[in-house]
Design brief:
single chain; 365 residues; mainly alpha; 12 helices; globular; disordered N terminus; endoplasmic reticulum; EmrE-like; membrane; sugar transport
Amino acid sequence: MASTAPKLDERKNEEKNQEESSIHELSCSSTTPLSPDNAESEVVYTIDDEKTPDKTHSEEQSGSSLRLLVWMIINIVSTVAIVFTNKSVLSHAMLRNSQVSFAAYHFTITGVTLWITSRPWCGWFEPKHVSAYRILHLVAAMCIQVIFQNLALAHSSVIFHQLARLLLTPATALLNYILYQSSIPRAAFLPLIVLCTGVGVVSYYDSVPTSKSTESTSAQGIFFALSGVCASAMYTVLVGRYHKKLQMSSMQLLLNQAPVSAAVLLCIAPWMETFPTVSSVPESLWLSILASGIMACLVNLSQFYIIDAAGPVTSTVIGQLKTCIIVGLGWILSDHVVSHQSVAGILMALTGMSLYMKIILKHQK
């Protein structure tokens, strides 16, 4: 009995060892595909496949947001700068009556800019040709409104000129109602009344001459500004009509308009203006004219990019910001004493415009 007991113990130990070895083999065979090396490669593969696109997408979004911010800054700076640059150019004695040729110069810059951006290697938009005969009404309205704007800027202060441009909104709404019975929300009427009242107050008190001021708004400036608003309203309505009629975007339509408008103005300029001799024009004035063209190019490019990337609502908000900046700088840089009544008119006009845009945008949603 004593001899058999050790044998039984030995057999049990051997069976136990065999079971452990078999379990070890099974565990090794089952964990081999999930070895640390393989597991690490699987985890890395999964992270790369799942998280890298999100990271790339976020990087693209941040990059596009940065580009949009840069173009917004360019648009604001160039728009504000071109107003004061054009004011200095058109107020100069030699070019005070050269609004037609100056407008033709800007149309040429706009046409060249749009032509470059429409090329396949640039690819901002696809050009679409239309005959000049079909857009003659639009070309005429475009030329008239730009010439009136230049005349208004030459004969009025920057503050009044910029606030008068706000009247384009009610004028366009009225013209749309008269021609196409297109109405606006009733709640928008009161802000428009406030806007018009504010501009009226500024136009009256800004035209009052003072002994401390060399720059004020003349009766001619008021007439040219109001005429420019009416012409711009007609042009805006026509643009909307031609968009639908020709099935063209703003850039496609302007690409066809700008060269024709420049050609028309260059043909009539010799009959309406007397050009100064080139040698008599100071270099500083030539530099201002060149800077005006460059800024016009930047305004067009940035405006197209903002509308394409962020939509017309963002563009409208930026437009309100530009108006406030121009009015503020015009107040600071001008030697014209701004009365308390003019300040009240400025605040009324800006408040009325802001409330109007808020109501219109809410109504569109």
